[in-house]
Structure formats: structure tokens, C-alpha cells
Amino acid sequence: MYLERKEDLSLYYFTKDLFSDASYIRIEDGYPESEIVIPTVAVNNGAIDGDKLELGNRKLYAERVWYFDIYAKTKSQRDEFAYRIFHALEESVPVYDYDGGFPPDVVTQLGCLVPDKVRVEIIRIDPNLTDKLYYRAQVVYFAHNNKF
């Protein structure tokens, strides 16, 4: 399994753990493929930018983007989820090796995702476009693995 997928899984399980006190919230790895159950937080990977920072070094410094899409019943629920994720991402997120399955038999840490930037965006939904009014937000997480 590629390191990038292990980073994706680490953020997914980090989010599940973050909301472990609220079992009514559905946490998805990727966009929900069936009908969305409200409330849901979907963790999606985005772009990877790789830059060479040292002459002669073949390794790329890779900055990645993840999107935490929030689907909530109310404005206050949406804001609570967004703020919880925003503040949790201020710290580095450990990346674990999931090649042995989950939970891993032997916990091997493959660095940490160090935040470069975190942003909360409110997504406005026109009530005329949907039968069911729900509240949306997106937390955008820019980070790099410190195991560069």
C-alpha cells in the first residue's frame, strides 16, 4: 500500500476517533455513495503537490490537501463539527502503517501530517434546489508528512 493511502486512512481513523463520543455521526472514507445520512462527515483526499527542495535529492516534498465535508441537520450542528475538526487539526496527525490490517498488530508510525494551513468554508445550499434542507461546510486541510 502506498504511503499516500496510509495517510488517507490515518486521517479517516483520526476523524472517527475525534467523533467517538457521538455515535450518531456517520464518518465516511470518501464521498457518500448512497443516500446521505444526516449528520455525516466525509473525509476526501485532494491534490498532491510535489516539489524538489534539494539539488541531487530524488525525494519530493509533497504537500497534500484533504477535504472534510460536513452534512448537518442544523446550523449549530454544522458549526460545532467544523470547529471541532478545525481545532483538532492544529496538531500533527500521526500516520500509521495499515499493511497488517486494522487495527495493526504492530503499531508502526510513518511520520506525522504537519498542518500547513486549515480553512473552514460554509457551503450555502439554495432551498429551491433540494427537497431536504441541510447545512453544509467543508474543512480544507493542507499538510505534509514530516518524514521527508
Structure description:
There is one protein chain. With 148 residues, this protein is of the alpha+beta class. It has a single domain, classed as 2-Layer Sandwich (STM4215-like). It has two helices and six strands. It has a six-stranded mixed beta sheet. The longest helix is centred in the first third of the chain and has 16 residues. It starts with a helix and ends with a strand. The model has no long low-confidence stretch (mean pLDDT 89).
Topology overview:
Layout lengths: L2 H16 L7 E4 L10 E12 L9 E12 L2 H14 L4 E4 L12 E15 L11 E11 L3
Parallel strand pairs: 1-2
Antiparallel strand pairs: 2-3, 3-6, 4-5, 5-6
Which labels suit this protein?
148 residues, alpha+beta, STM4215-like, 6 strands, globular
- Low-confidence runs: none
Strand order of the largest sheet: 1-2-3-6-5-4
Structural class: alpha+beta
Residue fraction in strands:
35-45%
Helix/strand order = HEEEHEEE
* Rg calc: 17 Å
Biggest sheet details? 6 strands, mixed
At CATH level 2, the architecture is: 2-Layer Sandwich
Q: CATH superfamily name?
A: Phage tail protein-like
